[in-house]
Amino acid sequence: MNKIYDVIVVGGGHAGCEAAIAAARRGADTLLFIIKIETIGRMSCNPAVGGLAKGHLVREVDALGGVIGQVIDKAGIHFRMLNRSKGPAVWAPRAQADRMRYHIEMRYVVEHQENLGIKEALIEEILVENDVIKGVKTQYGQEYFGKTVILTPGTFLRGRIHIGLKNFSAGRAGEFAAENLSLSLKNNGIKLARFKTGTPPRLNARTLNFFKLKEQMPDEPPVKFSYYTDIKPKNYVSCFLTSTNPQTHKIIADNIEESSLFSGNITGIGARYCPSIEDKIRKFPEKDKHQVFIEPEGIDTFEMYANGIPTSFPPDIQLKIVHSIKGLEKAKIMRFGYAIEYDCVQTDQIKPNLEMKNINGLFLAGQINGTSGYEEAAAQGIVAGINAVNKLNKEPPIIFTRDQSYIGVLIDDLVTKGVDEPYRMFTARAEYRLHLRQDNADERLMPLGYKLGLISKERYDKFKRAIEIKNREIDKLKSINANIESKKSYKMIDILRRPEVNFESLTQFGYKIEDDVTELIMEKVMLEVKYEGYIKRQLQEIEKFNYLEHKNIPQNFDYMNFHTISYESREKLTKVKPISVGQAARIPGVTYADISALLIKLKSMYG
Amino acid sequence: MQNQTETIVAISTPPGIGGISIIRLSGEESIQVLSKSFRGKVSPKKFKNHSIYYGKIFNKDQLIDEVLISVFIAPHSYTGEDVIEVSCHGGNFVTQQILQLMIRNGARMAMPGEFTKRAFLNGKMDLTEAEAVIDLIQAKTKHSQEAAIYQLEGKLYSSIKSMLDRITELRCEIELDLDFSDQGLEYKSTEEFIIELKDIKKKMSLLVNTGDEGIILNEGYKVVIAGEPNAGKSSLFNKIVENERAIVTDVPGTTRDYIEEDIALEGYLVKLFDTAGMRKGKDRIEKVGIEKSVDIIKQADLILWVHDITVNLANVLNFRKVLNKDVIEVFNKIDLVKEKKKSDDPNIAFVSALSGKGVSDLKKKIINRIDLGKYDISHGLISNTRQLAAAKKSLTAIKQAIKTTQKNLGLEFIAFDLRETSEALEEIIGKVTSEEIINSIFDRFCVGK
Question: From chain A, which residues contact B within 8 Å (Cβ)?
Fold first, then answer.
């Protein structure tokens, strides 16, 4: 009799690693397939983790017990907190990674994980019987059986690289695509879409004129991503900034028909927020410059990533473009940029636990769900891993909600609204942004991570201790008078509320900061005190939001025979199968009238 | 979307009409909300379904009115929720006070048609019935109707829409700045931002001010008769009301010290108040009369200060300054003096409340006050309390946004304030983005029913 795994994960990128590790940590007998073991946790695009809204996702995944935060803390070479000049709800940690180091650290974690096996093979088929997943089949024809399967193939599903007018099958430059898996999905009734993304050329640092580039220093000391770990990240390098100019733009305009984007060969849909340089020039001809960030790929290499000019021009034009840019006049390209098209699934076929609606036990995470970005992938990976195990244990799914996390926003957007371009997280997508901060991801998610067995007791104790200290400090601030020359006496907390005062400066007014108050705790205290009013208002909004969110709709609800609402809405509701009235209300095209009618119907059916 | 469990409140009788006004509460906490201000033999906690209780509404220790409470326990009520109806003595003043109290006690001002919507949602009514309720709402006087027409033409809509668009633009810019701050894009400076916010705020203030005009058209222009004792205030009141009596709201002064009548003067709804209890020998306005009379004067749009022409007028003119209100000095009892009294001064009138002489002249002067161009309704104005509350909310939110910007608290907080500003404006003109049929149906409802 063949061995049956609990969880089979197909793909070892940012989604796949999180999914496999989460499942294995929760005790599932897990097998991870990857086309090439050397590519575990590979960063296909820019060598950086975090950034605006994405940094929030990393902290959330970390708080749940995922690995991305710890891996980047170890592999990071340049740490910054973005948006420092803005308010604290949108501060965002970001780090440049040593691309090779990142892979090594991730591979280390994966290989050291109990219950987790790794196998190098290309998966060509999913095995399905009576709408239940049974396993997968490799290119060698071997069958592996699993009670659940998590697909995280990234850009490898029928991946096709375009450079100039040339195009060829590849999952990433120099790597095989998964040509047949798409077909297998299609044959199992899964509807696919085709998306496109791109990368810029990589340059040799020894050929750059750094005197002409603007240096961007990292933050000192570096702020790490992971909560309550002993990792001590270190800054090694700077990044550099330059920009395109009218001459660059002329080269692009003159050669535009040579770009594969305009050749008619590409049908995939690209993201508006991440356009190629030729797109930028076409759409914003009035702009005379675009930023180009020169980011080191690692500390053992001279390779530099030219962030800001992703392109699919042929090599000679790419070189001309690069040479037109200040500081890059004599640059040598080590790898050329390219555009890549890949298959993904239409996400209205997925449930909020990331399981396919029509195939029991088949979970999807990452780019296959139409997202872009390592952080978005990791977030889905851990959710899929967690829920595959819940499925095995016959426990109800763990649903992440919009009021609780960016992870919840991400998944709800995917399954409720669907995606028509590669999906990236923005803070603007989160209605409850003032609550979903990077500093409190631990408070929002660590208790869940601990409950699920993903956070160790040791880390959880540290977390609990930190919260105790935080509360102690807030109590203290409320009770101690500031040492200040004034007729009126002021409490410390009132002093801290002033915009120009930070926690440490309270010592001037006689406040004693105990040794156990860490930077993180100071930040937490400060934010809670300074923004108390706003946070309260936000929490009130969340309470309102939850009213419809907690009105559940049975999954077998028959919308098509519910004639009170329009046919169009019935179709949409049938497709999405919302789990709550709140989710139903967010489906584009479903009207308030439909929701009202639905509420009445549910009440009459279930009281 | 509004939370359906919140307890809502509204005046469910049309403004100013009827001897009795009803304030209706609906929601889980209806009884609790009422109980904070109600004193009676039976505690609200012990109220039985479909019963009526007598009691008094207090604001802290101040008596507001004697009322009857009708109790409808869910699901046996109009909305299907716990419903409390407070029947108080008609008239805007008391009704508004009770309404405000209920809001302070935790109820939320109902959206237009929200009671009906809840009835619909709770399966108490089908959609056709709900739509039919619209017909119950009528403009009361010709000028109110005119305002309604202008609103249909979208004057109010377009002025609010343009504010909304400008705020949306600022919000977009903030979001852009927050999520793409690493892109080297150019944004408005804080100063430019504040200038724009302040300009929108100015327009909003205007809107809130026109709100007072709009309310005059819909809820009445408040004219208060005040003055020294024995100047003939009550006689004048009766004389003015005599031929104009549209609706009688003659409330005996058992719990209050004033009388109120709604009359229609040339199509304008005018609320006429007769205050009483002015004490002798006190010439400072703060000490004149009891608090309620002062409260009414404070709310007045116009005061008729009545003098006895046969009495020495030495201290008369001081009052006007103290009041800081529009005042017409009315010299009564001209039948007792020999010379003929008539004045072209719009601020002075001579009457005889006994014979009725000069009263029509006084009425004209009152109407002229309303008509003085101050109330040009062609630019669109806010015409009910709900809209005014929303406009005020948006004004408060944008003020907060300006403060937040000046204090440099952070863009995401400004964004939060501006979202509140937008949402408040959307309450008036309806969601700009919505194709939501029911919402638009219910937006056409007047509050309460």
Answer: 51-53, 82-83, 85-90, 243, 273, 291, 426-428, 433-434, 499, 531, 534, 537-538, 544, 547-548, 585, 591-593, 595-596, 599-600, 603-604
Pairing of strands A4-10, A143-151: parallel
Domain that holds residue A234: 202-339
Query: Do A284 and A236 share a structural domain?
Result: yes
The mean pLDDT of B61-79, rounded to a whole number, is 88
Which candidate in B179, B189, B396 is best for mutational testing of the A interface (most A CBs within 10 A)?
B179
Instruction: Provide ipTM, 2 decimals.
Output: 0.78
Task: Please classify residue A544 by burial: count the beta carbons closer than 10 Å to its beta carbon, then call 0-12 exposed, 13-18 middle and 19+ buried.
Answer: middle
Residue A312 and residue A285 share a domain: yes
Residue B442 vs residue A390, higher pLDDT: A390
Q: Is the pLDDT of residue A231 over 90?
A: yes
**pLDDT band with cut points at 50, 70 and 90 for residue A420:** confident
Structure tokens at A433: 């942004």
**Chain A residue closest in CA terms to B122:** A600
- Number of structural domains in chain A: 3
Are residues A86 and B178, on separate chains, in Cβ contact within 8 Å?
yes
Chain A touched by B28 (CB under 8 Å): no
- The residues pairing with A269 across neighbouring beta strands, listed in sequence order, are A195
Distance from CA of A570 to the nearest CA of B (A): 16
Best-predicted range by mean pLDDT (A58-62, B21-25, B172-176): A58-62
Domain architecture of chain B: domains with CATH = 1-136 (3.30.1360.120), 141-213+384-432 (1.20.120.430), 220-371 (3.40.50.300)
- In the predicted model, what is the mean pLDDT of residues B69-78? 90
Distance of alpha carbon A533 from alpha carbon A39, whole angstroms: 48
pTM of the full structure: 0.73
What distance in Å separates the CA atoms of residue B318 and residue B332, rounded to the nearest whole number? 18
Higher pLDDT, A173 or A255: A255
Between CA B311 and CA B336 the distance in angstroms is 11
Distance from C-alpha of A22 to C-alpha of A227, rounded to nearest angstrom:
17
- Whether pLDDT at B150 is above 60: no
pLDDT greater than 80 at residue B146: no
**CATH code at position A564:** 1.10.150.570
Of A434, A592, A603, the CB nearest to B412: A434
d(CA B254, CA B233): 19
Per the structure block, which two tokens stand in for A445? Answer: 């998610």
Residue ending a domain, among A513, A540, A567, is A540
User: Based on the domain organization, do A512 and A578 belong to the same domain?
Assistant: no
CA distance A455 to chain B (A): 30
Q: Do A487 and A590 fall into the same domain? A: no
Note the pLDDT of residue A298: 96
Kindly determine whether residue A593 and residue B436, on different chains, have CB atoms separated by under 8 Å.
Answer: yes
Which of A311, A339, A367 is the endpoint of a domain?
A339
- The model's confidence at residue B234, banded by pLDDT at 50, 70 and 90, is confident
Residues in chain A closer than 8 A to B407 (CB atoms): 499
